[in-house]
Amino acid sequence: MDQVKGVLTLQGEALTQADINLKVAKSGQVLHFQFREDKQWKLQQIQDARNHVNQALLLLNSRDETYQFKTGAEVNKLMDAVMLQLTRARNRLTTPASLTLPELATSGLMKMFTPPMPGDVMVNFYINLSKLCLTVYQLHVLPPNTTKNFKPTGTSVLHNPGAMFELNNNRFEVSHVHKVECVVPWLSDTLVFFTISLQLCQQLKDKISVFSSFWNYRPF
């Protein structure tokens, strides 16, 4: 978009490069920021999703190939545990974390850039479904003697203009919000694979249920 342009490089769970140009709303000045060469930003959502997948794999590999399941209930119990991990993994990619504005302002992400971000600009990166999202907040400081009704904003994935917060005895208001996003093809594939995996687990449970009913059937 006109206000925010740039390039982000995502490798696995890590943003390895970021080069951002921000056009300041009031002055029209263009600010340029990039990641420090010694820094990478790990996306917690992808880390968590990977960890849940690893837990599902551990469950599936906890028995060797010669193991014989004794009951349908035993299979269902395993499938329930695997499906729980797969669902949690998918949810981490579909549900970005809600944060307060002070949490964003004091995040380690704000220390990633050179030159350093000015005090009236904040950024946030997150995953939403198959998209990598960048949100840029422009702020202005509320005068100490302002008569404006100050009401701190709670947690949110995306804060709107007019949202207020207090940090280090200063009060701020969000004046402009810019959100840009880009589809990441391998994230799209990942979400499809989660859906297929969950469907396969459910199909196995359904078959177990049908056969269990047959085994439990006793004619008069």
From TrEMBL:
InterPro entries: RAVE2/Rogdi. Coiled coil: none annotated. It is found in: Cytoplasmic vesicle, Secretory vesicle, Synaptic vesicle. Signal peptide: none annotated. It comes from the Eukaryota. PANTHER family: LEUCINE ZIPPER CONTAINING TRANSCRIPTION FACTOR LZF1, PROTEIN ROGDI HOMOLOG. Belongs to the rogdi family. This is Protein rogdi homolog. It comes from Characodon lateralis.
